[in-house]
């Protein structure tokens, strides 16, 4: 049974009838829910925390006087951004005591997400990791401006800063991201080619084949969260990464991986006894794999059971 304070869904909206203020609030929230989730997820890199933010957003939205709201979408984005900013600071403290490396929570996504090139790039594991290097306010401004194309005055209201200050933050965030992101947006097709070569070389123990597809400064990051076995620190350098992946145990794992669409890009998924065990995503620059991200923490794999709908 759902609580009266539970966030509404498309199903509960269809059940509601007869109009009224509550129904209008519910309809508006459900209409924009996928957008709001995308905003929160891009700010946090955590689907579980994004879901919590949406619950908090609904509780506040349900008490708003809708007659005073000119733009419901903008108002909801503003609430979501503020809640996500608070959650982002809490998440930062949790990461300080996290066991091993922290990676974004992977999402199983539908093929249509990849058709929106800018959205796909913004939710890629590589870009989410780049955004981890921004301050909370820089990340909020970057996401709202660069991904969702909000006006500076709208962003200013969401982050409680003046439009001129937001412009400065946006400029700083863009420069910061540009220095760390792939030089060009890599298509899912390019990623697939590199991933196929990686998988073939690893499965056959072809060390040279693996070295050929890895960039010299390639990095392997594992995230077990202290629950599952994973490398505690990043492994850096093509030779070290290749030797790690061609070891007997690693080869057996990779041989069991199956293709899947994760965060709008081709990735690999391992199931053990029917349960998701590992998600492996890659970052590709100029045809070579520069980053390999293996998520094993079971608390981060719940959104790999069914596709998550993202939108701008």
Please describe what this structure looks like.
The chain is an alpha+beta fold. The chain is built from 15 helices and 6 strands. It has helices spanning 10-15, 21-31, 33-44, 47-61, 72-96, 111-115, 117-123, 125-131, 136-147, 152-159, 163-178, 188-204, 207-213, 238-245, 248-255, and strands at residues 214-223, 235-236, 258-262, 265-272, 275-285, 288-295. It has a 6-stranded mixed beta sheet with strand order 2-1-6-5-4-3. A hairpin with a 2-residue loop joins strand 3 (258-262) and strand 4. Helix 3 (33-44) runs parallel beside helix 5, helix 4 (47-61) crosses helix 5 (72-96) and helix 10 crosses helix 11 (163-178). The longest helix is centred in the N-terminal third of the chain and has 25 residues, at 72-96. The chain is globular, with a radius of gyration of 21 Å. The relative contact order is 0.14. The mean pLDDT is 90.
- The sequence of SSEs as H and E is HHHHHHHHHHHHHEEHHEEEE
- Decide which structural class fits the backbone: alpha+beta
Please give the share of residues in helix: 40-55%
Major β-sheet annotation = 6 strands, mixed
In quaternary terms, these chains amount to single chain
* SS field, number of helical segments: 15
Mean pLDDT: 90
Total strand segments: 6
Overall shape: it is: globular
Weakly predicted, low-confidence segments: none
Spatial separation of the terminal alpha carbons: 31 Å
Radius of gyration using CA atoms only: 21 Å
Q: DSSP strand (E) fraction?
A: 5-15%
């Amino acid at each position: 049974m759902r609580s009266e304070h539970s966030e509404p869904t498309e199903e509960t909206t269809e059940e509601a009838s007869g109009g009224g203020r509550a129904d209008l609030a519910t309809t508006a929230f459900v209409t924009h829910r996928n957008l709001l989730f995308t905003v929160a997820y891009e700010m946090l890199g955590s689907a579980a925390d994004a879901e919590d933010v949406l619950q908090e957003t609904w509780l506040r939205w349900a008490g708003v006087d809708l007659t005073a709201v000119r733009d419901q979408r903008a108002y909801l984005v503003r609430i979501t951004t503020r809640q996500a900013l608070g959650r982002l600071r809490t998440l930062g403290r949790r990461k300080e005591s996290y066991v091993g490396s922290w990676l974004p929570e992977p999402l199983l996504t539908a093929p249509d997400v990849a058709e929106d090139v800018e959205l796909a790039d913004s939710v890629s594991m590589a870009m989410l990791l780049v955004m981890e290097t921004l301050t909370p306010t820089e990340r909020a401004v970057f996401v709202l401006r660069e991904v969702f194309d909000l006006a500076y005055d709208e962003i200013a209201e969401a982050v409680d800063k003046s439009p001129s200050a937001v412009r400065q933050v946006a400029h700083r965030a863009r420069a910061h991201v540009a220095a760390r992101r792939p030089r060009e947006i890599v298509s899912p097709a390019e990623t697939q080619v590199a991933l196929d070569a990686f998988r073939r070389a690893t499965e056959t123990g072809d060390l040279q084949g693996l070295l050929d597809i890895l960039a010299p400064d390639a990095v392997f990051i594992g995230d077990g969260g202290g629950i599952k076995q994973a490398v505690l620190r990043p492994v850096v350098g093509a030779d070290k990464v290749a030797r790690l992946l061609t070891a007997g145990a690693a080869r057996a794992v990779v041989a069991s991986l199956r293709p899947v669409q994760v965060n709008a890009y081709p990735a690999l998924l391992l199931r053990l006894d029917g349960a998701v065990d590992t998600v492996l995503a890659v970052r590709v620059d100029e045809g070579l794999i520069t980053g390999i991200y293996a998520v094993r923490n079971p608390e981060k794999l719940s959104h790999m059971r069914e596709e998550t709908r993202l939108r701008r």
